[in-house]
């Protein structure tokens, strides 16, 4: 009787409420993630099918120069994007955080609005601006800076511009919220105790906003590592990152185990960063939203 | 003397900060403005500015491929929003309120779609669907979208749940309301702002998604972003610029209206009180 009562009072509602999300996560996150790890240890058949025999082949292929180069190039591009987003974004976040709350929330809104525009169309705009007969080349030619148009299209530089402009808000938002939380009295105390503004920044502001900075690193570095739309749109198939290679393995090339192994590589890098993050901050506090 | 020096420095710093921020906003808005300007370009493909026209805004509606993919995107986004917000709302309440075995596991799982690159989850879902023979199409795209929308929705709503709602719920139950009545009359109104922003977030994430839709579309028709990506090789035509210009205007106008209505309601409430 008592047991039945407890079931009705506690277990049933818990099951009804937490059940759907748990089931969804297990079916469509846990299982696929485990399965992709499993597939990465299989090998590719002659016709692009999966041969279910344990092998390290895919991981060995990753060390081949062609793939190895792409991996290094992607990691470097993601790292450069992250560093630039932090350097550009921190002063910007600081400026907004020092505004009165009303103004600051409007300024944050102003950052979000462009990102409700289709992301591919925003990338396409850079292409329109920088193409051979586009406004920038015309301007440079008309003003006599250059004689022949510069080829910006499908270069690493343009891809980098696309990456930075796509990722900047994800760097700014977490840093903004951690700077905004920074108590003013701490900065005043530091100044009263005779610290220079530089010392205050290095000893107080920077360490206290570090969780925000690290959130930014995660939110910029990891997506840039897996992105393929920017390289597709602005690199025109000439610039390839890990994301493009994974996509191709599940498309025309049909080498699932290799694509799976590359995915596992991304999972491992992500896990590593999250592990470091959780050493000094709780994952629940990550300013994702 | 000294004070004025400090004031001068402060003013100068403020100016530098403002100029810097304006520069960054300019960079963020340039792509949007360029997109809008080139929707009025009198040219079959956008190579350079060739004079003003509004023809693309009318021709757009005769381009059935574009309109079809837009509807496809909207239907998926609406369904994904409804499913994600429903599961996210009750899930957020359930995960916050009840202790059970595996709660921590589910909580951790929720962060995977948020953090791991989308391509990884997309191909993982793809191979699972292929393995069990689930046909690719609208259903698979919808599942894919919900898989990343649910965590965002849930985390957003969970942030709005405060512990002090429980006593109200208990009071409601004690007074004889059943669980469903309590949920609708007490719990839901208290977390409504969170639910609304979760819905907005889910919709925008779904309608702009490329990676999931691209990997899980199969060979059949697909969403607008997938269509745009496939047009990229031959060049994106100005009618797409026109369409995305309309879309962003609709979003911004509805946001402004929403805000205005909220403010109005607040005012009437204040005058009543």
Automatic annotation (TrEMBL), chain A:
Provide the membrane topology annotation: Multi-pass membrane protein
Q: Which GO terms of the cellular component aspect does the record hold? A: plasma membrane
* ABC transmembrane type-1 domain sequence ranges: 71-277
Q: Does the keyword Transmembrane apply?
A: yes
Keywords from the UniProt entry: Cell membrane, Membrane, Transmembrane, Transmembrane helix, Transport
GO biological process entries: transmembrane transport
Entry keyword Transport:
yes
Q: Where in the cell is it found?
A: Cell membrane
Which Pfam families is this protein grouped with? BPD_transp_1
InterPro entries per record: MetI-like, MetI-like_sf
TM region positions: 21-41, 75-95, 107-129, 158-179, 200-222, 256-277
Q: Which domain of life is it from?
A: Bacteria
As for family, the record states: Belongs to the binding-protein-dependent transport system permease family. CysTW subfamily.
Return the protein name.
Spermidine/putrescine transport system permease protein PotB
The protein's organism comes out as Tissierella creatinophila DSM 6911
Automatic annotation (TrEMBL), chain B:
Q: Which UniProt keywords apply?
A: Cell membrane, Membrane, Transmembrane, Transmembrane helix, Transport
What is the name of this protein? Inner membrane ABC transporter permease protein YdcV
| Places the protein is found | Cell membrane
Q: Which GO terms describe its biological process?
A: transmembrane transport
Family statement: Belongs to the binding-protein-dependent transport system permease family. CysTW subfamily.
State the annotated membrane topology for this chain: Multi-pass membrane protein
Q: Give the organism, scientific name.
A: Tissierella creatinophila DSM 6911
Listed SUPFAM superfamilies: MetI-like
> For this UniProt entry, which segments traverse the membrane?
12-40, 70-93, 105-128, 134-155, 183-207, 240-257
Q: ABC transmembrane type-1 domain: which residues?
A: 70-261
Read off the InterPro entries from this record.
Answer: Bact_Polyamine_Transport, MetI-like, MetI-like_sf
Q: Which GO terms describe its cellular component?
A: plasma membrane
């Amino acid at each position: 009787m008592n047991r039945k009562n407890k079931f009705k009072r506690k277990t049933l509602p818990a099951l009804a409420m937490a059940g759907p999300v748990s089931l969804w996560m297990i079916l469509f996150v846990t299982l696929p993630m485990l399965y992709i790890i499993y597939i990465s240890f299989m090998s590719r058949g002659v016709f692009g099918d999966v041969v279910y025999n344990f092998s390290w082949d895919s991981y060995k292929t990753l060390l081949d120069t062609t793939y190895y180069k792409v991996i290094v190039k992607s990691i470097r591009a993601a790292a450069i994007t992250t560093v630039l987003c932090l350097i550009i974004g921190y002063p910007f976040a600081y400026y907004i955080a020092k505004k009165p709350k009303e103004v600051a929330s409007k300024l944050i809104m102003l950052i979000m609005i462009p990102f409700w525009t289709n992301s591919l169309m925003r990338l396409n705009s850079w292409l329109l601006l920088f193409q051979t007969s586009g406004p920038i080349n015309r301007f440079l030619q008309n003003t006599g800076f250059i004689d022949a148009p510069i080829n910006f299209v499908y270069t690493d530089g343009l891809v980098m511009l696309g990456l930075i402009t796509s990722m900047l808000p994800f760097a700014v938002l977490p840093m903004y919220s951690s700077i905004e939380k920074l108590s003013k009295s701490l900065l005043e105390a530091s100044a009263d105790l005779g610290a220079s503004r530089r010392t205050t920044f290095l000893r107080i502001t920077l360490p206290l906003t570090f969780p925000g900075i690290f959130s930014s690193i995660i939110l910029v570095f990891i997506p840039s590592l897996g992105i393929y739309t920017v390289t597709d749109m602005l690199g025109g198939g000439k610039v390839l990152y890990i994301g493009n290679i994974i996509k191709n393995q599940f498309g025309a090339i049909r080498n699932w185990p290799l694509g799976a192994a590359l995915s596992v590589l991304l999972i491992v890098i992500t896990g590593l960063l999250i592990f470091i993050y959780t050493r000094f901050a709780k994952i629940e506090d990550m300013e994702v939203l | 003397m000294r004070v004025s020096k400090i004031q001068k420095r402060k003013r100068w710093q403020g100016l530098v900060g403002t100029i810097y921020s304006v520069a960054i906003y300019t960079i963020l808005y340039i792509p949007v403005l360029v997109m809008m300007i080139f929707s009025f370009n009198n040219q079959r493909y956008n190579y350079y500015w060739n004079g003003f026209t509004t023809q693309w805004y009318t021709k757009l509606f005769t381009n059935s491929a574009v309109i079809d993919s837009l509807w496809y995107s909207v239907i998926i986004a609406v369904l994904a929003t409804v499913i994600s917000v429903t599961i996210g709302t009750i899930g957020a309440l359930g995960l916050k309120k009840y202790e059970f075995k595996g709660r921590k596991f589910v909580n951790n799982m929720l962060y995977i779609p948020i953090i791991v690159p989308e391509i990884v989850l997309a191909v993982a879902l793809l191979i699972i669907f292929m393995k069990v023979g689930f046909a690719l199409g609208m259903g698979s795209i919808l599942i894919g979208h919900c898989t990343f929308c649910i965590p965002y929705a849930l985390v957003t709503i969970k942030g709005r749940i405060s512990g002090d709602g429980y006593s109200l719920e208990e009071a409601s139950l004690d007074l004889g309301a059943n669980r469903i009545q309590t949920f609708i009359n007490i719990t839901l109104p208290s977390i409504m702002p969170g639910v609304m922003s979760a819905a907005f977030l889910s919709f925008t994430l779904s309608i702009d998604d490329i990676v999931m839709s691209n990997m899980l579309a199969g060979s059949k028709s697909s969403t607008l972003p997938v269509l745009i990506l496939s047009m990229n090789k031959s060049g994106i035509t100005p009618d797409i610029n026109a369409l995305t210009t309309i879309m962003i205007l609709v979003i911004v106008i509805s946001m402004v209206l929403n805000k205005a209505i909220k403010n109005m309601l607040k005012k009437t409430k204040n005058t009543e009180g």
